[in-house]
Amino acid sequence: MGKMLGGEEEKDPDAQKKEEERQEALRQQEEERKAKHARMEAEREKVRQQIRDKYGLKKKEEKEAEEKAALEQPCEGSLTRPKKAIPAGCGDEDEDEEESILDTVLKYLPGPLQDMFKK
Fold this sequence. Notes:
The chain is an all-alpha fold. Helix content is 68%, strand content 0%. It holds the Pfam family Synaphin.
């Protein structure tokens, strides 16, 4: 009631000590929770590793590192990109194929027509 009338709060002499104990208990609970979660995650990782070993799988990080190394390896010292990176429809390969198709068609034409197309 004194608080409502503008008076001072009633101070509990042990309030500070109780608050410190409460904070310590909360901190200890949080540490226990984190330790429990760390143990559970370690168990999960152990099971994951057993599965990877059983089926010959690799971790995602290992797989990405190997792919990155494979991409960097042929490119070292090279000024051109790898041939498989050239999109289909680009380059000299298509021209060679077109010539071979034309030659194939010319073989089936009669002699005078072949002479016309070759000129």
